[in-house]
């Protein structure tokens, strides 16, 4: 049950200078074994850059999810529950080392099935995943409770794992987002079932191999490729799953929350995207602001929950900024994400491309002013696109497009831009560009947003909480805050008896 994939890499303007073959397991990973799904259910994967068939992998049915949950429950109760924190630390560190060793393989797999640029994956996503595993490995023996004085004597609290937990992962940066959930879940002593995205599951097939090599006991980590409404839904409603962490679209997040409310009240954390404002004041370092705002809406084709898709520029520099932004972002080298000269990969799928193109069409129907882009290119490619003078009520200013489409608008005052930036149901990530430290602090205090970056965009770090205000989500990934989401508190109270005389 392996699939052989051809990787053509590191060409120099079309000349392929390295060809390699990768092999990945195609089965479901349960109890440290790769097994077929019920009735041999499979899904075909296409390469989003070429449309050609890539691999066929098993897809979990309800019964397969139940098997993984049962295996996790056995593992938790038999051994994992009492595993020493330092053993969990060592296993996470080992897994981090192995992912680092195989960084090129992961980057190739993410390029092949998710359309992520190889250089972005190998340079950012894989190192971020490695760092996240090491960060939480360091926490494994530091998740402590408190001791408290009581009328009866004293008591103490323990932070205990939930037991069997689930992670549902999106396709846009799958290895990195998986690490945000796997690392704190395992550090705190849970068993985890990872439902990989059906559009880009190959990284998970490789990760599963490394789980065995790292030495995790059977049942502690399961990896299931599966459809959202089948495997994802089963995890959401399963009575023996007590915590579920989800990253993806708002409608599915709401559905998972409703399912948890209807079933066993499992704890749910949700990361549901955003409509991030990038605010450029006229006193900002112009070149720096240009670099980050350009990256904020073009990296990974804008398929990033923290994308800076609304760009507000102060009126005195507006025209110059718009001209330079266009010069910097309008031309990209679209092509095979494995090749070094490519600066723009494909959208993940035709569905996603059609969705983005429909927003471009709506903007044109609204007679918005197109700065550049907008053309319907062949295959799954969407050109970097920007509209200027976009009004507050325009659909492309309000809704998450998840594509390389920038909505640019001018503002005059600090007060006005704070109102504009907060005029959204989302609240995940914002960026402020100014050389005035007091203004930077005032504006970041006023922004309704789980993250504010000053004079940069993005910057997701393992040691800093990441998650949304308002409808961008519930709970936090990353930082020490995530540990709270993977543990429950038990209070132990001791009645200190008087000596018997
Ligand atoms: P999605 O929400 O449909 O899928 C995300 C994950 O949830 C996948 O693993 C999917 O299999 C699973 N899922 C789908 N339906 C489910 C269900 N009923 N129960 C449980 N799990 C389910 O997202 P998508 O279709 O991949 O993308 C659609 C839109 O979602 C995008 O255009 C974008 O706006 C948004 N999105 C946001 C993020 C983010 O990082 N916040 C990531 C990916 C997509």
Automatic annotation (TrEMBL):
Residues 34-492 form the Aldehyde dehydrogenase domain. Keywords: Oxidoreductase. It catalyses: an aldehyde + NAD(+) + H2O = a carboxylate + NADH + 2 H(+). GO terms for biological process: carboxylic acid biosynthetic process. Its EC number is 1.2.1.3. SUPFAM superfamilies: ALDH-like. GO terms for molecular function: aldehyde dehydrogenase (NAD+) activity. InterPro entries: Ald_DH/histidinol_DH, Ald_DH_C, Ald_DH_N, Aldehyde_DH_dom. Belongs to the aldehyde dehydrogenase family. This is aldehyde dehydrogenase (NAD(+)).
């Amino acid at each position: 049950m392996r699939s052989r994939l051809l990787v053509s890499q590191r060409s120099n303007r079309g000349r392929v200078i390295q060809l390699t073959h990768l092999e990945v397991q195609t089965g479901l990973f349960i109890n440290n074994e790769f097994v077929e799904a019920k009735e041999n259910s499979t899904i075909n994967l296409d390469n989003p850059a070429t449309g050609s068939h890539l691999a066929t992998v098993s897809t979990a049915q309800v019964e397969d999810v139940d098997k993984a949950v049962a295996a996790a429950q056995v593992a938790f109760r038999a051994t994992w529950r009492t595993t020493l924190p330092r053993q969990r630390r060592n296993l996470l560190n080992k897994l981090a080392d192995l992912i680092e060793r195989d960084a090129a393989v992961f980057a190739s797999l993410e390029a092949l099935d998710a359309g992520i640029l190889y250089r972005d994956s190998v340079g950012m996503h894989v190192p971020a995943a490695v760092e996240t595993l090491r960060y939480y490995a360091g926490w494994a023996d530091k998740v402590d409770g408190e001791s408290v004085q009581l009328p009866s004597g004293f008591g103490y609290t323990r932070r205990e794992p939930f037991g069997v937990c689930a992670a549902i992962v999106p396709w846009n940066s799958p290895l990195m987002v998986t690490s945000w959930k796997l690392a704190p879940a395992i550090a705190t002593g849970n068993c985890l079932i990872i439902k990989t995205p059906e559009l880009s599951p190959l990284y998970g097939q490789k990760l599963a191999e490394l789980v065995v090599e790292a030495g995790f006991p059977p049942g502690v980590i399961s990896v299931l490729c599966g459809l959202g409404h089948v495997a994802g839904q089963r995890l959401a409603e399963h009575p023996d799953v007590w915590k579920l962490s989800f990253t993806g679209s708002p409608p599915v997040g709401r559905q998972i929350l409703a399912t948890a409310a209807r079933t066993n009240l499992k704890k749910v954390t949700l990361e549901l995207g955003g409509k991030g404002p990038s605010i450029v004041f006229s006193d900002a370092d112009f070149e720096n602001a240009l670099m980050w705002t350009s990256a904020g809406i073009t990296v990974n084709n804008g398929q990033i929950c923290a994308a800076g898709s609304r760009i507000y520029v102060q009126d005195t520099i507006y025209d110059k900024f718009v001209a330079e932004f266009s010069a910097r972002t309008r031309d990209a080298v679209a092509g095979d994400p494995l090749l070094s000269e490519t600066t723009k990969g494909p959208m993940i799928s035709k569905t996603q491309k059609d969705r983005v193109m429909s927003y471009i069409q709506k903007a044109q129907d609204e007679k918005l002013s197109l700065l550049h882009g907008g053309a319907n290119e062949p295959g799954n490619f969407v050109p970097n696109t920007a509209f200027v003078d976009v009004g507050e009520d325009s659909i492309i200013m309000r809704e998450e497009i998840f594509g390389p489409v920038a909505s640019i608008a001018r503002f005059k005052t600090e007060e006005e831009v704070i109102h504009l930036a907060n005029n959204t149901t989302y609240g995940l990530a914002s960026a402020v560009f100014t050389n005035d430290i007091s203004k930077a602090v005032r504006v970041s205090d006023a922004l309704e947003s789980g993250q504010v970056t000053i004079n940069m965009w993005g910057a997701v770090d393992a040691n800093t909480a990441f998650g949304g205000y308002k409808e961008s989500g519930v709970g936090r990934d990353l930082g020490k805050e995530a540990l709270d989401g993977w543990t429950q508190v038990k209070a132990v109270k001791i009645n200190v008896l008087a000596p018997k005389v």
